[in-house]
Write a structure and sequence with these properties.
The protein is α+β, with helices and mostly antiparallel strands. It folds into two domains: 17-103, Immunoglobulin-like, CATH 2.60.40; 106-198. It is built from five helices and nine strands. The strands form two sheets. Strands 6-7-5-9-8 form a five-stranded mixed beta sheet. It has a four-stranded mixed beta sheet with strand order 1-4-3-2, covered by helices on one side. Strand 8 (176-186) and strand 9 form a beta hairpin. The N and C termini lie far apart (89 Å). The mean pLDDT is 94. It binds zinc ion (ZN) (2 copies). One zinc ion binds at residues 3, 5-6, 8, 15-16, 18-19.
């Protein structure tokens, strides 16, 4: 048997190995669009992961390598795959374009809208110290605002979980009183706010 294209000895499906690999595709990749929150930002690793997750192949892929060149909101992406097609090893490279689109994630929409689920109330003679500790214990992204009052500080926190964690850590040294209030009702959903008075 000879290769129907070049006449060399045929090895696979009436083709020699070279001609077979030339006509067979190892993988497919299309241009992509990626939406990300401009306030959270995006890392190169995340772009690579997004691209690599969308590489399609019916063959065995052994390795995927992605190189990025970012110009403005365009990412010129080079994908190199190694693998096997019907047992024959092949390395293939494709270039695609990834367009980055900015949006604002749910968390940031809430943060900018002043949304909060919990309040830590720093009170008593050590209110300053308590407030400083809360600042350290709560991730910066979850800290909505700090209000200064005569009796102390009201620290608004976006997530109950973050507030709960901070309160738990402070419970080692301070007295904590937890209450909750119905803050809003939207589309039948009730939002209860947690209050932690700490002194
Ligand atoms: Zn051939
Ligand atoms: Zn965000």
């Amino acid at each position: 048997m000879f290769c129907i294209k070049c006449g060399k000895t045929a090895k696979i499906d009436n083709f020699c190995e070279d001609c077979f690999l030339q006509k067979e595709k190892l993988f497919e990749a299309k241009d992509l669009e990626l939406r990300f929150c401009e306030h959270c930002g995006i890392k190169q690793e995340a772009i690579k992961e997004y691209v690599e997750d969308r590489v399609k192949s019916e063959n065995e892929l052994e390795k995927i390598k992605t190189d990025l060149k970012i110009v403005g909101n365009k990412v010129y992406t080079k994908i190199t795959c190694t693998g096997k097609i019907k047992g024959v090893p092949k390395e293939e490279t494709k270039k695609i374009l990834v367009v980055l689109r900015k949006k604002t994630c749910d968390m940031h929409v809430k943060l900018f809208g002043g949304y909060y689920e919990a309040v830590i109330q720093a009170r008593g003679p050590e209110k300053e110290k308590i407030m400083e500790q809360v600042r350290k214990l709560v991730p910066q992204k979850a800290l909505v605002s700090i209000e200064s009052l005569k009796e102390g500080y009201n620290i608004k926190i976006m997530r109950k979980a973050n507030a709960g964690k901070a309160a738990k850590a402070l419970a080692k040294n301070y007295k904590i009183r937890k209450t909750f209030k119905l803050a809003a009702e939207k589309k039948g959903q009730k939002l209860y706010r947690n209050y932690y008075a700490i002194r």
